[in-house]
Every structure is written in structure tokens, then in C-alpha cells.
Amino acid sequence: MTSNPITAPIDSASEFHKIQSRPASIEVKGITVSFKTPKGVFTAIKDIDLTIKKGEIVALIGHSGCGKSTLMGTISGMTAPTNGQVIANGAVVKGPGPDRGIVFQNYSLLPWLTVYKNIYEAVDSVFKDKTAAEKREIVEENLKMVNLWAHKDKLPGQLSGGMKQRVAIARAFAINPSILLLDEPFGALDALTKGSMHIELLKLWNLDNRNKTIVMVTHDIEEAIFLSDRVVVMNNGPEATIKEIVEIPLPRPRNKKEIVHDPIYMETHDKLMSLLFDKFSIEDE
Amino acid sequence: MKKLLNFQTYLPLLFGLGSTTLLLGAWWTVSLLTNNEIPNPLSTWTVFSEMLATPFYDYGPNDKGIGNQLFSSLLRVFSGFGAGSLLAIPLGLLIGSSKTAFRLINPIVQILRPVSPLAWFPLGLLAFKAAEGATVFIIFVTSLWPTLINTAFGVASIPQDHKNVAKAFGFSRWKYITKVIIPYALPHIITGLRLSIGVAWMVIVAGEMLSGGVGIGFFVWDSWNALSLEKILSAILIIGTVGLLLDKGFDWLQKRFAFS
Ligand SMILES: Nc1ncnc2c1ncn2[C@@H]1O[C@H](COP(=O)(O)OP(=O)(O)OP(=O)(O)O)[C@@H](O)[C@H]1O
Ligand SMILES: [Mg+2]
């Protein structure tokens, strides 16, 4: 696995460009998603093209309701596109698969299963050939990673929003997918927990020699810059498209405290802000 | 403040006493108005306590203790109800999860559900060649509907979120049924069972009046023939109490399996 020269951890500024020379992990080709509603057909996203390389971290930002979750759904295979196709790991996406781990925006835990069981059932479904002991080990490892081992016997109803979110994250990580699809995974977390989850996410990514592709929806610009290689900014719907893709050429590893003083960071932050909020400033004038 | 708290704890007891007084008062009034043709609570109580003193005697086919009668009835109720549930739950799971099954089976359910238990009795006799089997049969055929309908409704109302989990993580059909469908539908299933046992207990009295033999329904009929209204009233009290206990039992189950 580590025979690929690019997979070794790279801490130079040129790393970003090397990522671009990697094979594609996800290819979104001309995706349109329309919903049938009582008021007629509603086209949420239209003609979206996006190629994400293997090992790349991409953040998806845009105003609420613009179609981020819908686009994620077509990659995960939960939503069938009306037009176009998504290719993940070289195969056309026809439905969800164990190569893509999903963290749903609303956590989607089964309320009658304990925290432990919620993860175990997913692990059990995906790793059919592993022994029960091996599966239990995977669950334990991932629950400890999100600091929830002490709460393993609780039911989701007894957890806070942030805790539920961490269970959902542990569940997606536990099936060890090559593509992680995270829909606002840290949205309900306080700044402190969020910070440590960022570190855990990057740790995991480094551990696997930065081979995992991560697509993440977020409303947090700092988070998007800190974590990702590229930030995809979407237009407002209906018929939302990609407004612009902003590259984040900051070297890794990135230090959260120092990075904010980096001129590239500040420049990118400003750019993303104006991309998201141009509408408001025009109205203000 | 302390006094108020004390009062609050005795409140259920006071209300219990209140409704008992209300019932006895109404009963006594009727009794007085009918010139004791309807026996009053006191004379009923005399007969009732005699019945309860030796509940399990057995002096031949037509003279058995109230305990024996009750036991026979409960046995029939649980046989018919059990068999009905064994059919209703899986069928409900099927109807709830498949639109085709629903469209195919729902009309049949709608036609058969309102049929009176008594109408089924001759069919039971024909099929089982015995009154015993026929009684269990009518309980079976009338008590399965609430469970069937509630189960189907429970399954059909599974939120998309829960289905998404199964889809996203590739649950097998078996895992989907045991870890998603059944746990979600369980409270609905128990509600159905609770309604079903209520129906079964209502039907048993009518069934046994037709079938004869041993049982609380037969006991009522027999007491009528012997013109012992005290015994009939006692039986009514017993039927009501047992029905209440059955309902409480399923209520307890319902609370036990409610997740939140
Ligand atoms: N199943 C559906 N049926 C009809 N319309 C839908 C459906 N799912 C989404 N939409 C519509 O598509 C649009 C995009 O929804 P989507 O959930 O993708 O937004 P989002 O960008 O993820 O928003 P948020 O940031 O609030 O999560 C919205 O206008 C929404 O109303
Ligand atoms: Mg969303």
C-alpha cells in the first residue's frame, strides 16, 4: 500500500500540487437532481461537475438549502441523480457502499440501540468475514477515539447533540471507508470538542498515509480552511451550481494557532467570506 | 405544605373509594327500584364470597368452581389470541413493508374485520367438529385484526432516517428486520396485542354461551338457567376485573418496551 511515493506524509508546501497529480477518487459528472413536489418539479442542483483526487480533503460550503446535502447524497448513493453520474473509486455509483462512510447531517442513530450497538451493527454489516472479537475491537477503538467509551451503554436519547454526532463519526470511521462523506459533522460541537475532533480527523487521515478522501459540508469557514485542500463554494438554489473552487495552498501539518496569522490564510478567509456574502454587501450599499 | 403532600398521596385512594361508592350507590338504587329483582350488592357479596371460598371444586361437568371456569376461559382466550398473534404479527410486518402486499391483503382485512364473532362460530364447528375448537377459532379470527393493523401501521411509519442507516451501512435483510423494523414497530405491536386481548376477552363470554362446557361465559348462562342473578352479577364483576388485569399487564409491557 505504501509503495506509492506520494503516500508518505509530506510536509512541504508543494504537497498540494502533488495531490492534484493523484488518481481521481470521486468524479461528479453533470449531476442534476430534481425533486417531485406537490407544486411541481424542483431542481435543487444542476449540471454539477467536480473531480476530487484520492487523499484530498474537500470542504463544501454554501447557504442553507442550496443543495450541499443533495450533492453529498448523490456521491454516497443515497440519492439517485436525475441526470449525470458519479464515479467513486472507478465505479459508477448506483447506491451506498462500504467504500463510502457517511455521517448524516441529522446523525441518524437507531434510538433503540446503545451507542456501542449502533456502531457494532454497522461494523458487523460491513466486515462480514471478521470474527466477533475483531469487530468488537474495531468498535472499541473508534469509540475511544471520539471519547465516548465511558458512554457506550447509553441510548442515543440519553446523549447530547455533540455526543450523538461523535457516535455518527465513530460509526463512519469504524467501517474504514476509502471515502468519508461528512455532512456538517462538527456542527453541534463546542469549539473545544470541535478542535479535538479536527485533530482526530487529521490523525486518522495521516495514519492511513493520507489515502482517504474526505468530503465535508460545513458552515464554518475557519474549519474549512484549516482542514481542506480545496473549498467548493456553491451558489444559492434552486438549480444551484458550483460558484467557485478555492484552493488552500497552506502547508501541512497545519497549526491552528499559527495558521491564522499566515497571509495566505487571511487572504483565503476574506475571499471565502466575500464569495458567501457578496449578496449582502451589495444590498447594503 | 407537608399536609398538602400527604393529601396528594392519598388522592388516588380517595378517588378509588369515590368511584366504588358511586358504583355501589347506583347498583343499590337499581336494586331498590326493581324491588330486589336485581340483587343488591350485599346479597351479591354473600354469594360472591361463597364462590371465592371454594374456587376449585369439581362436582362433575355441570358443577365446577369459579376458579376452574375462569381457568378454562383464560386457556381458550390465550390459545386463540396466541394463534391469532402468531399469524397477525408476521403478516402485519409483511403488509407494512410491502406496498404490493398491502394492496393485495388490505381489502380482505377490511371485509373480514367487522364480521361478528358469532357469525364465525358455525364455520368453526364445521372445521373442528367440536365446540371447543370452534370457540378458540372465533377468538383467533376476531382478535387478530388489531394486532395485524397496528403492526402494519408501525412498520409503514418507520422514519426515512432509520431506513437510511440500514441502506448506508448495507444491513442484510435479516438485520434490517431484527434491528430496524421490529424494534421500531414493537410499541405498535404491543398496542395491537393489548387491543386484541381486550377483544378476545369480550368474545369469550359470547363464545362459551354458544358452546357450553366449562368457562365463565357458560357459567353466566348456567346461572341464568338456575335463576341466580347474584351469580351472574358476581361473574360480571370477575369478568370485568380479569379484563382490567389483562389490560394492565399489556400496559406494563408497553411501558417496558417504549424507547425514547
Ligand atoms: N426529498 C426532497 N424533496 C423535495 N425537495 C427537497 C428534498 N430534499 C431536498 N430538497 C430541497 O432541495 C434543496 C437543497 O436541499 P439540501 O438539503 O441539499 O440543502 P443543504 O445545502 O444541505 O442545506 P443545509 O445547509 O440547511 O443543510 C432545498 O431547497 C430542499 O428544500
Ligand atoms: Mg444539508
Structural account:
The complex is a heterodimer of chains A (285) and B (260). In chain A, strands 6-7-8-3-9-10 form a six-stranded mixed β-sheet, with helices on both faces. A four-stranded antiparallel β-sheet of chain A has the order 2-1-4-5, with helices on one face. Chain A has 285 residues and is of the alpha/beta class. Chain A has a domain at 1-94 and 212-276: Rossmann fold. Chain A is globular, with a radius of gyration of 19 Å. The model of chain A is unreliable at 1-14 and 281-285 (pLDDT under 50). Chain A has helices at 15-20, 68-76, 115-126, 132-145, 161-174, 191-207, 221-227, 256-259, 263-284; strands spanning 24-37, 40-53, 57-61, 83-88, 91-92, 100-103, 179-183, 213-217, 230-234, 242-247. Chain A has nine helices and ten strands. Chain B has 260 residues and is an all-alpha fold. Chain B has two domains: 1-38; 41-256, MetI-like (MetI-like fold), CATH 1.10.3720.10. Helix content of chain B is 83%, strand content 0%. Chain B contains ten helices and no strands. In chain B, α6 (131-156) runs antiparallel to α8 (173-211) and α8 (173-211) runs parallel beside α9 (216-225). The mean pLDDT of chain B is 90. Chain A binds chain B through residues 76, 78, 95-98, 102, 104, 106, 108-113, 121-122, 124-126, 155, 157, 171, 175, and chain B through 161-162, 164-165, 167-172, 175, 179-180, 183-184, 259-260. Adenosine-5'-triphosphate is lined by residues 35, 37, 42, 44, 62, 64-70, 105, 237 of chain A.
